Amino acid sequence: MPELEQQPRVPMTRRYLMCPPRYFAVDYVINPWMDPSVPVSVDTATAQWTELRDTYRRLGHTVEEIEAQPGLPDMVFAANSGTVVDGRVLGSRFRAPQRTAEAEHFRRWFVEHGYRDITMPEKINEAEGDFAWTGKVLLAGTGFRTDPAAHAEAQEVLGVPVVSLRLIDPSYYHLDTALFVLAEATDTTSAQIAYYADAFSAGSRKVLERMFPDAVIADRADAECFGLNGVSDGRNVVLPVEATGLAARLTERGYEVLFVDISELRKAGGGPKCCTLEIRK
Length: 281
Fold this sequence. Notes:
- It is an enzyme of class 3 (hydrolase).
- Its EC number is 3.5.3.18.
- By secondary structure, the protein is an alpha/beta fold.
- It has one domain (10-278): L-arginine/glycine Amidinotransferase, Chain A, CATH 3.75.10.
- The chain is 23% helix and 19% strand.
- The protein is built from seven helices and 15 strands.
- Strands 2-1-15 form a three-stranded mixed β-sheet, with helices on one face. Strands 3-4-5 form a three-stranded mixed β-sheet, with helices on both faces. A three-stranded mixed β-sheet has the order 6-7-8.
- It is globular.
């Protein structure tokens, strides 16, 4: 086993912004997981979301909430509405018109909570849906939602290096459905990620192999249950309850896995990370 895998996993306290699924519904189709003919339950979605929120709080993380708005059933997927690095906020600009209005509600939340360094993008940019901060580099997805030009815009606004990755499977339309950061890089340690290789172009796979030779590689079963839409604090990893294969591999690497049921939220194409916008000061 590589030396990296034997290092103790250190959790880092996080601050998250979430939106309760008060108006959750599947009334339209903007990704392959959505089917308006399949009934959904707001009560079930709310119970699952609440358990996810409470899991974060039990781990010692801070969770703030933004008020849900009528007519915006996907607002629960807060990760798509902002990217925050070192207190700088890059807002979102949605590709689907059904979600466009969400961006302004999140911008107002940041303004009302004292953030002044806020930029709303000119290019299509679905925020942490397609941006993953590794502690040193921002991994940026494109192919289905976020415009490639948004990657350069993010680099200018956030002042961090950006590495572009191309997604090729429409089932994994956002980067956060195919990759997540397990442990951020520090001055003495490298970042570690987990990803589903078949979601990426050949060139992007080579980039990931070069940058993260010790990555945890997920299989199709992991990906199909949104296992790559996990959330990690560096030690504790929150995964969908079905992601047992990925959980076993993470446990071997020294991570502690906590399972949550996101089956109702998954009907709209969302999982733990989709519901979780991280605020990094």
